[in-house]
Design goal:
Blueprint lengths: L37 H11 L1 H8 L1 H9 L3 H31 L2 E9 L2 E7 L8 H12 L3 E5 L5 E6 L3 H10 L12 E6 L8
Parallel strand pairs: 1-5
Antiparallel strand pairs: 1-2, 2-4, 3-4
């Protein structure tokens, strides 16, 4: 019988294992992320060989990789995410507390004999647009009102005349832009003009 050995397929030729080495860190591409130049590695690969880059770092590739993460790694990832979210929540909480603790100061300031201005500070903590509020005061009292920086460098509204009591009332009644400013946060103060030589 004729041998059929010639027809017998030998061991099928193995496709050469394709290993790409990184030009930056010199490791196989799979190991780039463990080196200290991962960002540079990726940038270089994207420039040199976009196809290979996509094989490793495309959206799909990353998704596939995420799916093969060990349970331990997934748990850690979830933990990290939860920690990040808790931190953001804490920050929002602190912002709310700060807002509730913010004071609106309405200060009557004597400029000259029988001449006063009223400075309103702190409305911005309650989301009030100071320029618009100044306009509202100007219209309401038919007087001048503007936004200026005080000595501490904070913006405040300065209204001509002694209208401190009226502004407190406006806040209590929630008139116009002042709606939502809690009246419990309002403090009325008076600044007396210091005369030189006075102790
Ligand atoms: Zn690399």
């Amino acid at each position: 019988m004729a041998s059929t050995s010639a027809d017998t397929p030998g061991p099928s030729p193995r496709a050469p294992l394709e290993v790409h080495y990184c030009q930056v860190c010199t490791f196989p591409l799979e190991y780039c992320e463990f080196g200290s130049s991962f960002t540079k590695c990726k940038e270089s690969l994207l420039k040199e060989d976009p196809d290979v880059y996509n094989k490793f770092y495309s959206e799909e590739a990353l998704q596939a990789k995420l799916g093969t993460l060990s349970l331990e790694a997934q748990t850690k990832l979830e933990k990290d995410t939860a920690a990040k979210e808790a931190k953001a929540e804490k920050k929002a909480d602190a912002a709310l507390k700060k807002k509730m603790a913010s004071q609106v100061t309405i200060k009557r300031i004597a400029r000259n004999k029988n001449k006063y201005v009223t400075a309103v500070h702190g409305l911005e903590a309650f989301g009030v647009d100071l320029k618009k509020a100044a306009k509202q005061f100007a219209q309401k009292f038919a007087t001048g009102a503007s936004v200026t920086k005080n000595n501490q460098g904070f913006d405040e509204i300065v209204v001509q005349g002694d209208v401190s009591g009226d502004i407190v009332e406006m806040i209590e009644d929630g008139v116009g832009l002042l709606k939502g400013v809690p009246k419990d946060n309002v403090v009325e103060v008076e600044e007396k003009k210091k005369k030189s030589g006075e102790n």
